[in-house]
Amino acid sequence: MNDLQGALKRQKIAYFSMEIGLRSEIPTYSGGLGGLAGDAIRSAADLNIPLVAVTLVSNKGYFRQILDPSGNQIEHTEEWNPARFMTLLSENISVKIQDRDVKISAWLYNCKSLTGSYVPIIFLDTDVEGNDREDRKITDSLYGGDRRYRLKQEIILGIGGVRMLEALGFNVRKYHMNEGHSSLLALELLKRNGADPAKVKELCIFTTHTPVEAGHDKFDYGLVEDLIRDKNDIDTLRKFGGEDRFNTSLFALNLSNYVNGVTKRHSRTSCELFPGYKIQAVTNGVHSYTWTSPYFRTLYNRYLPGWTDEPELLVRVGKIPDAEIWEAHWSAKRDLIDEVNKRAGVDMDYEALTIGFARRMTSYKRATLILSDLEMLRKINRRGKIQLIFAGKAHPSDEAGKQIIRDIFKTIETLHKEIKIVFLENYDMDLAAKMVAGVDVWLNTPSCPYEASGTSGMKAAHNGVVNFSVLDGWWIEGWIEDVTGWSIGPQPEEELSEEEARLAELKDLYYKLYYIIVPMYYEQKDEWFKLINNSIGMVAYYFNSHRMMRNYVTNAYL
Fold this sequence. Notes:
558 residues, alpha/beta, Rossmann fold, 10-stranded mixed sheet, 6-stranded parallel sheet, 42% helix
């Protein structure tokens, strides 16, 4: 509690996120949004930014993924004990859902920096004595249940989060909503500020991560009125969140003075989605120390002292001898291949060009694009041996995403005597760290413009891994052809039909693998070393969360 008392002395930025990725043993994240939140918090701790974070405890996690021999995904709850990592605080508050007072307790986790600074994270928990059995489960499952369950979670996060911070004595300067899930905090702030939207706007920052209309949370007012029964509250939600359905992002937009997307392209897309709103751009980054393998950490410590505090020092990577960079990469690759062979028994090869693809398994990510023409893949493999590593979870209700995993398993079976391909189950932060450091090429093939940012390729770059990606999200800003990596398919400004774009992408994907990537890897090591150096010195030096958080401080927090 001494740490908490110390944190109360300074005005805070309250950072609200439905999910936060801190470590694999704390399964309170599902993917990119949680990973980004965790990296933002780690950088805030490093930079001594006065932040306090608020999220849900998700007692049963997201889910543990088990895959049967045919690639069928089986979901298991991933129950964990917060008491192993956190301190249960004595304060309790309540929020009204329907006509019931739902009690909320809080766990404190201090995210500590190597510098000694820390950011307190408040995990809200409704598994409290005295609550109805149904209410005790509200903070159980991340993104679980139906629309009613989701709206209850958003009431707890937004309204409950503001009340908990007040009960704990935090002096909050600004409220930063990381995606629209926490936007109901603005409803609570309106009550505390005489229903004056101008005052609330001064307090609120909204970051949207969703580039398509369908991705923004919307709730039917019949459901909203059933759970939030105060007529004045409903009138407020209709006024600022939409007449037909309650749109959480619209509510946040209307009650925030600073709004941003997470890349320059995404900011422009968001302005088209929500015309009339000023939506800035703060391009995402990743926490350099967390996502750099131990082998590269040792190298950077030796040649670039201070890089953990100033990742921009990675621009001086040219000081490090190529032989030492290759040894660091080789060590990370060996660790990954050993892990793959231990898990899957596929006897992957240390020497072969290894391509990695790991992210949420959903249709627009197009994990199977590289598997579209198996004859071309065989031809590429004859030019120089390749092997592919896939990983990722499909949301339990995403049947199309689950089918993608089954399709990959069918291809693995079809090609098992020719090309080594593996799908690793239960993708988590530990596996992610091994993969982004251990592959040779990081593949990214989303349908444009559905990738708001993406961050896995930034993590790969910190380890000298070369990006090969569709021009969407962050890669538009990081890409210089044949210098920092390679693009796949048309330029963003080219106007092609969906089918034309896909054919252009497939042609480019296979052409570059056959004529450029595979020959360079096997026959032009000096050119490959240049790409490794440029991944670190021209990509990682900029696409890090220290730069991102400094941008938030100067643009939004001050």
